[in-house]
């Protein structure tokens, strides 16, 4: 098993944090490598050992966040062989806890300080997770891909609404709300 050098981990963490702090002040395209290095207290040579440009640093952090998002999304599936929304336990949902943990990052993604491309990458990641869930798709005549588009937009809509309320709801509250949303039945008379 190969171990990662703790110095590299700490350096990258310092660079990620510096980038997020600066993104609170200005957009991604207005940030210089020198500015990040100064804030992270590392030299430019160290930056160039790991990245070629500011966008590479952001993309690496974005990938780390979306990998954690995927693990959070999969959590309810770890407790059952087949996930039935009618039996979904809100305590097993971790996606909102993930958002809460990384809310500084999500504030930036939804604040328009980074290119819209990252919003769409987030959408595509959520859609990919939904698309992999073959168990959730059981209705004949419904286009699975369009259904995943619909669900991904619903999840992002909840997250954006939460962001717009400055993350004032608890993750547990949103878990309970999500379980209620996915179990709404439309009565046909």
From TrEMBL:
<dbReference type="InterPro" id="IPR009057">
    <property type="entry name" value="Homeodomain-like_sf"/>
</dbReference>
<keyword id="KW-0238">DNA-binding</keyword>
<dbReference type="InterPro" id="IPR001647">
    <property type="entry name" value="HTH_TetR"/>
</dbReference>
<feature type="DNA-binding region" description="H-T-H motif">
    <location>
        <begin position="32"/>
        <end position="51"/>
    </location>
</feature>
<dbReference type="InterPro" id="IPR050624">
    <property type="entry name" value="HTH-type_Tx_Regulator"/>
</dbReference>
<feature type="domain" description="HTH tetR-type">
    <location>
        <begin position="9"/>
        <end position="69"/>
    </location>
</feature>
<dbReference type="Pfam" id="PF00440">
    <property type="entry name" value="TetR_N"/>
</dbReference>
<dbReference type="Pfam" id="PF14278">
    <property type="entry name" value="TetR_C_8"/>
</dbReference>
<dbReference type="InterPro" id="IPR039532">
    <property type="entry name" value="TetR_C_Firmicutes"/>
</dbReference>
<protein>
    <submittedName>
        <fullName>TetR/AcrR family transcriptional regulator</fullName>
    </submittedName>
</protein>
